[in-house]
Amino acid sequence: MNNNIMKNIPFMLKPAAKDYLWGGQRLNDDFGKKIDMDPLAETWECSTHPDGPSVVSGGEFDGKLLIDVLKEHSEFLGKHCEGLGELPILIKFIDAKADLSVQVHPSDDYAREYENGQLGKSEMWYVLDANKGSKLVYGLKHKCSKGVIRGAIEKGKLEKYLRYVPVKKNDVFFIEAGTIHAIGAGALVAEIQENSNLTYRLYDYDRVDKDGHKRELHVDKGLEVADLSSSNEPRQLMRVLKYRPGVANELLSRCKYFEVYRMLINTERRQKVTYSSDELSFRVLLCYDGCGNISYCAGDGRKEYINIYKGDCIFVPANSEELVLNGVMELLDIRC
User: What pTM, to 2 d.p., does this model score?
Assistant: First the structure.
């Protein structure tokens, strides 16, 4: 068997972690992350961003940074990402024990011009769980001028202009660059976004960090890129589950940056669920419930297994071997 083809097999990733002041401990408690950090606000599950790179866990590339593996094996990215040398997306778990700051992200064009050629940031949230009464900020209730919003920020009264949207488990939200937004307390979220860490913080409730300092605001830049027109309340679009033996799939979100599907695997009746990536794009499997495994045939005909547990993230190179998924688990299937 061709050795290059054999290299296109999946591998597990170990995340980078962030201790932002609004985080809790659900990523440890619910997902067994075993990360010595309190609070544990985010885990960057699949990332080549220098602010939080993922590391390969197990297999041929064990212990290597994902970015280094992709530089050595650019074919893993697929034709859609040809020549990039890094991932165009970043995938996170987010535990909002308290409200996140009210913020906005720039577009690609603005970021390229004013942020040293970086990417902007559009993102998608899939709500894994939410407390009763949890909500998020999505834009403004009414069209406002920069002066009105600046004045409201200075007076600590921005909330009265914000559109608040209730959230519940299984909701999907797409947050386009330029949208004023914030995840509210009590939400547990999987986030798929452009490969960027550009955030312009507009408002932070006058909170202080563990050293007693207020976090930096970026009001001037934020107002430069923010959409200050009124925002309609985002509606949950109708989604269609498509069934075949052992698995159900549904499209959650599609944009020019990524596609995200939800996969419900149940092979208790001995069904065989096959899975593979094509030559166009790598894929990422993010397990947010249940457990199972991925199996594939090694070069000598042996079967190899990767066990999957709740909270695990698996990178599947482009043009992969045929894989078999087994177990009872719920996954996000992400591709570019």
Answer: 0.96
